[in-house]
Amino acid sequence: MSRTRLAEKLVSWASQLEPAALEQAKRTAALPFVYPHLALMPDAHLGKGATVGSVIPTVAAIIPAAVGVDIGCGMIAVRTQFHWPDLSTMDTAALRAAIEAAVPLSAGVYNTGLADTAQARVATLEAAAKEDYARFAGNWRLQLGTLGSGNHFIEVTVDEAQRVWLFLHSGSRGVGNKIAQWHIKVAQRLCRQWWIQLPDPDLAYLAEGTDEFWAYLRDLRWAQRFALLNREEMMDRVVGCLGAWVGEPVEADERINCHHNFTQQEEHFHKKVWVSRKGAIEATAGRPGLIPGSMGTASYVVTGKGDPVSLNSSPHGAGRQLSRSAARRKFTVDDLRAAMRGIEYRDTDAFIDEIPAAYKDIDQVMADAAGLVEIQHTLRQVVNVKGD
């Protein structure tokens, strides 16, 4: 799909867009400090406050809920030297079990102690901290190297040349969530205090130049760094599991780590703006990126094309088309088994709401994004690991 202007300051690449998401995006785009326009990605769907799949450039203001509560959520991938035909007769259930033992899974599940591999990364975060983040989460150090639940996952995948890739999706865990919730409430309190009328209280913003703005930016950057290092820590453990399973060290031929829930200052259309990508990746020309599908469909390694109207952005995944409750009403565990045939995964009804049919067609999303990114590799899962 080519881009479409849906309102004065709303440009969309989404061929599949629910009416409620469109109205939500219009409300955000109409805010006076949005410049030059909100870019709606092909995977856009209804979110809290701002639409998931939004690229929101703002002048002298940031909307904390437009970044979201999983600050720095994103992807990491490693291309290995292995080819799947050489490994396909091995016990994939044993590999899945090893990964599940090495990486704590599920909401509220963390490391019981500080792993040797995590010590340097924790030290980096301690040195970068300009705030005592124990006030948000006393155990944040033990959260580093943990996956979470929902749509977060670890996968062993195979590309079109049968090369094995490790693929992982996670963010800033409980500490990032607490930081985000705190600043969303601060923004809402200040907007009430200043008698600012908003179409949605979750569009409350912080004005540049205030102490509250700079406090959010400081904590945001720290949480983004936590998320990036969290993915690095988990990937190192997964690499170790694969090496032990194969019986030789893994050579990481390529490694990509990118956020898709974040804010940074950029220049677009001759003006410096704060760009909040809520479910979108940066896609400047030549920049590598990762776009996952669902737990049973293809994922993509891409490079950006630097489309200026998209604000150098692209989609971050398939995007939900059914809520979790709607997916549970519609599908059964047998439906999930059928969708996951041929993929090693933990067979449980806990994942019914993650069934591929609850998500948009990733092939259509990528077709819509043809002007935004170039596909380098198409990945198919052979092992999937998720938390309840």
Describe the fold and architecture.
The longest helix has 36 residues, at 211-246. A hairpin with a 4-residue loop joins strand 7 and strand 8 (163-170). Helix 3 runs antiparallel to helix 7 (211-246) and helix 6 (173-193) packs antiparallel against helix 7. The model has no long low-confidence stretch (mean pLDDT 96). The chain has helices at residues 19-29, 64-67, 92-102, 119-128, 140-143, 173-193, 211-246, 324-330, 333-339, 362-368, and strands spanning 4-7, 10-12, 38-45, 52-58, 61-62, 74-83, 153-158, 163-170, 206-207, 254-259, 261-268, 271-278, 280-282, 288-291, 299-304, 313-315, 373-385. It is globular. It has one domain: tRNA-splicing ligase RtcB. It is α+β, with helices and mostly antiparallel strands.
According to CATH, the homologous superfamily is tRNA-splicing ligase RtcB
Q: State the helical fraction.
A: 25-40%
CATH architecture type: Alpha-Beta Complex
Kindly, what is the distance between the CA atoms of the first and last residues, rounded to a whole number of angstroms? 35 Å
Number of domains: 1
Number of helical segments with 4 or more residues = 10
**CATH fold-type name:** tRNA-splicing ligase RtcB
Strand order of the largest sheet: 10-6-8-7-17-15-14
